[in-house]
Design brief:
This protein has helices at about 1-15, 25-30, 35-60, 60-75, 80-95, 95-105, 110-130, 135-160, 185-205, 220-250, 255-280. The protein is mostly helical. The chain has one domain.
Amino acid sequence: MRYQWLLFKTAIMFFTRIPVGQLPYAQSYLQASARYFSWVGILIGLFGAMVLLLAHWLFSTPLAILCSMIATILLTGAFHEDGFADCCDAFGGGYSKEKILTIMKDSRLGTYGVVGLILILSLKYLLLLELTQFFSIELVAALLVAAHANSRFWATNIMQQLPYVQDIDASKSKPLADRVLTNLEMLVLLLGVILPLIGVFVWFSVLNAAVAPIPLSPRFFLWLAGFMVLVQLPALLLQRYAANYFKKWIGGYTGDCLGATQQVCEIAFYLGCLLLWKFI
């Protein structure tokens, strides 16, 4: 158990600015900590959800959503947003594998990166705002937790599908570059996605008994399975597209590709929730 707690704290240290104290460093620890990436997503989502609820109590809904977004960006140090911006610059301005990887290593932010960040943050804000038109602010907060866990699962899944292609010695993602999770580790990673989704669906069922099945009834589990599949379908499709796109242009993935995948899949999750409610 102490070993698992060490791995979880290692994952927290890697993805956030939360102080976890002095940890013994070993490449194997960081590699093995990938099983908890979705669980770190839960932690980040919980922080964003708490800020959302507190800010909503004090301010308007639009301002509360903006405060929540700022809070999660500060907590992670814009770790994934930086990867997304680098990918926008690299794939937007590169015309060969070598050129793409060279641009991706450049610490400067270009036009593609700036435009990409503006668009994806605006889209995230507007999707969350749209969700508040259909759901209570408490349920949107729960969806926030599920989205952060879900998106980190799909980003980690890229590591299982593609080889690492950048100059490993110069990359902050070096310790994760040659690690494929075992089936048991993938199960732990997947549980970090399933549990928030179950929580969201149970909450929705209790609050909306007139349109949702009663918890623990046979119909409830059927609807739960359908919900879990359909709400993740946009993220799955975008993740598969991203993986094929990365493979086509650079032959695999980089750390920035993982950050971009997380951002896109988080957006896709909100979109899936919105489409599911409006059209099904």
